Structures are given as C-alpha cells and as structure tokens.
Amino acid sequence: MSGNTFGQRFRLTTFGESHGVALGGIIDGCPAGLPLCEEDIQKDLDRRKPTKNLAATPRRESDTVRILSGVFEGKTTGTPLAFMIANEQQHSKDYASLADVFRPGHADFTYEKKYGIRDHRGGGRSSGRETAARVAGGAVARCLLGTYGIQIYGATIALGGLRVPEIEMTAAGSRPYYAAHADTVMQWEELLHNARTQGDTLGGLVRIEAHNVPAGLGDPVFDKLDARLGAALFSVGAVKGVEIGAGFQAASMTGSQNNDSMAPEGFLTNHAGGMLGGISTGQSLVLTAAIKPIPSIAQAQHTINRAGEAVSITIAGRHDICAIPRIVPVLEAMTALVLADTLLLNLGCQTASTR
Prior knowledge:
By secondary structure, this protein is α+β, with helices and mostly antiparallel strands. The protein has a single domain (about 5-355), classed as Chorismate synthase AroC (Chorismate synthase, AroC fold), CATH 3.60.150.10. About 25% of the residues lie in helices and about 20% in strands. It is built from 7 helices and 18 strands. The protein has helices spanning about 40-50, 110-115, 130-145, 185-195, 225-235, 255-260, 325-350; strands at about 5, 10-15, 20-30, 65-70, 70, 75, 80-85, 150-160, 160-165, 205-210, 240-245, 260-265, 265, 275, 280, 285-290, 300-305, 310-315. Strands 1-2-3-7-4 form a 5-stranded antiparallel β-sheet, with helices on one face. A 5-stranded antiparallel β-sheet has the order 9-8-10-16-11. A hairpin with a 2-residue loop joins strand 5 and strand 6. It starts with a strand and ends in a 6-residue tail after the last helix.
C-alpha cells in the first residue's frame, strides 16, 4: 500500500490499523535543536480523544504516546523521529458479522476491489483511528511553527446544518465541540441527542485559520499553497469539501466585491483566504472543511455481500455520532504539516540576498 508518507522536506510516514497492536509514525526532516517532549505531543492527542459529549464514541483509548527515537535531552537530534501509540481497547468481535459484507459509506467495497483483502475490524487502515498518528506528527510540526510565531486555530462553524451566528476563532478551543460561538452549543446538543435517538449521525463545517504566516510561502502552478492545503484536508476520510477564503461564495460575487483591496497598512479584506497565486500574502490563512456524517449508523441499511447478493445490515459497535469535535485537531494537524513542510522548503530555496 502506497500513500502513507506526507510531505517533501518535513516528511511524516504513518502506520497502524484501528484494531492492530499500535499506531505510529516516523518524521524525517525535522530540524535538530527543537525543544520537544512527549507532553508536547500528548496534549494534542488528548484533544482528539473522545470526551463526555453526545457526539463521541464509547471507545476509550488513552492514546499515550511514546517517542522512540530522534529526541535527546529534550531536543530533536535531526535524525528520524519515531513515535508509537498503543491500541488498548479493541473490541474486534463487534465486527465479526461484517467480514463478508460491505458497509454503506465506508471504504470496505473499494479496499476489497483494490487489494483483494481487507481488515474488517473497524475498517483497518481506512478507520478514523489512523488520524491519531497524524495528530502526533502535526504536534511536532506545530512546535516547529511556534518558533516562527505561527499559530493554528480550529473551530466548528456548523453542525447538523445549524451555523453559528458569528465566528470567534481563538476562544473556540475552550468550548464544547470547538464551537465558534457559545450560543449554538445547546442547540447542537439537541440535534445530536435527536440523531442518537434515531440511530443516525450528523456532519458539519470546520474552519481552520493559521495566524502570523509570513508572506511568500508556497509555489505557483502545481505546488500552490492552497492546493497543498486542500489536498491535506481532503486526505482526511470524513472531509468531502474544502473552501479557501470566500470559497464557493466567491462564485456569486463580482470582481469588485471579491478582490482584496490594498492600502499602505495592508490588505483591507481577506476573501482570498491569505493566498494569491498559490503564495501566502502575510494575512491569516482561512480554510473551511465540509465534514460528512459518520457512515456507521444504527439503522437497517441495504448493501451487498462478497458474493454480490443483496443483504440488509445494522451496524453494531462503538461509533461517533459526529466526527466533530474530534476531527478539529486532525485538520489543525494537517495544516501544521503543510506549513512546516512549506516553511522548510521556502528556507531552502532562499537566495543569500533574501535570507
């Protein structure tokens, strides 16, 4: 299986399945001398873990990370940085009935067609569980970005079709569901309660912002910064749409409305989402990801088995009702990985006159 390595200069390779022994990764290209300890990674992994909210799965993993190499006396050494996260709460028997059927909305059918074999226990490598390794790698990238003053924030701006009235990014991390506004939390709770009662699930919209990003990151044509960020977010299984800046709203605007005018003090608006021509403008990067409903629902569904016969299934096991809020730190991590990689690429291509 290819496609398990992300990045060019700051490269993360991940491994592991939902019900395997462990998940983990190796980071190659992390500069030496970066202050780093397991707690720096653990705090982001803890943000990804299910909490006591209506959206979360009953599965409880400690997600305790161990750094295996690449750190000495609290600093990175510049050698491959390996980490591991043990799986501790697998209930593989919950999936025994799914060994020969394809779950609607999951990757069961496509994995079977591509590889001729699949791990039916929670989806194996296609499970959202694999994102724990992304978050760990992203935490290291975030530490690197922090030395340049770059900060990344994530917030939920819609859940179950209900949007927040205003967006307050920096306070979202302290609210349930990473809500971009406090007024919608109780309404979202009601929507989630109703969905759980009906054996159904919900989707939503997550906004990611990167602040203090310097101008000049990214490359034109095929390696545009917005293209790389879009690909990174789309690589997360539940993401079905990505907007940059004004996004689809720009299609209904005029040029005079969409253009970001400039003044001596800087840009007056940010419809472009902090990128022009694939290169950062120095404004905050703004992205919005559309998150699909969790496909594992507690309702009877029509599907087929390996023999191509029509069957009906009801999925048991422990599942989230909504990927939000757990997906928020995952999307932050993917943004951090892109920016760390792009930053190192940019530093490597600077001429002596621009250093």
